[in-house]
Amino acid sequence: MTKETDFFARRLHSLLGIIPVGLFLVQHLVINHFATRGAESFNAASNFMGNLPFVLFLEWFVIYIPLMFHAFYGVYIAFTAKNNVQRYGTFRNWMFMLQRITGVILVVFIAWHIYQTRIQKALGVEVNYDMMADILASPFMLVFYIVGVLAATFHLSNGLWGFLTTWGFTQSPRSQKIVSYLTIIIFIVLSVIGLQAIFAFV
Ligand code: HEM
């Protein structure tokens, strides 16, 4: 890969992590949160999303294609990155390594999650509150979903720090520190929303 292509691919990877993939993740967690108001509320919210006009087009262009680019290029970055936590045990170095680890967890989690939900729907199975409750009745699946959701909320929140730095919005150490605190708050808020939704099915 030439230096220019690498630069362009990195920027595109960074941008897609926020728009549209990050925005989609937030929207997805909010829709799931309707489960805390009961099965009917969740089914209504989920049906509304599933019956949007041009839904197939939206799914491919807003979710699958950007996510696939981000994920495939992300795996390449993750396995070519130099993790040097042992030599430089700073907070940012740990975050750098955790960004890569959560990315790899997400490849497995998202693939399985799409198989259990979207692919089943395409095969004619009704995907609704009861189906998610059945899945999460298994203790193994419950732990798997908790780990997957926490990996996603961490990856997006910490990724926001990376995005703002990559694009030059936060250049001074002070602004980077402020954004660190901000992203910790975002991580906590998104995790509470995600976990409350999971436990609403249990
Ligand atoms: C829920 C799905 C995902 C979201 C919302 C998301 C979001 C983000 C965001 C916002 C960034 C920051 C970009 C930057 O550092 O400039 C990022 C970075 C990264 N993502 Fe993802 N991502 C997701 C899935 C994945 C997957 C499946 C992988 C596969 C390994 C992955 C690997 C990476 C890597 C390696 C970075 C660091 C890039 C760098 O520091 O240069 N991500 N992600």
Written overview of the protein:
The protein is mostly helical and 202 residues long. The protein has eight helices and no strands. It is globular and about 50 Å long. It starts with a helix and ends with a helix. The structure holds protoporphyrin IX containing FE (HEM). The site of protoporphyrin IX containing FE has 26 residues, from helix 1, helix 2, helix 4, helix 5 and helix 7.
- Give me the CATH fold name: 3 helical TM bundles of succinate and fumarate reductases
What is the overall silhouette? globular
Separation of the first and last Cα atoms? 48 Å
Molecules bound to protein: protoporphyrin IX containing FE
Taking Cα atoms only, what radius of gyration do you get, to the nearest Å?
Answer: 18 Å
Give the class-level CATH name. Answer: Mainly Alpha
Helical percentage: over 70%
Order of helices and strands: HHHHHHHH
Largest sheet: none
Structural class: mainly alpha
CATH superfamily: Fumarate reductase/succinate dehydrogenase, transmembrane subunit
When the domains are counted, the total is: 1
Q: Let me know the number of strands.
A: 0
The CATH architecture designation is Up-down Bundle
Low-confidence stretches: none
Regarding quaternary structure, how should these chains be classified?
single chain
Please indicate the percent range of residues in DSSP E strands (runs of 2 or more).
under 5%
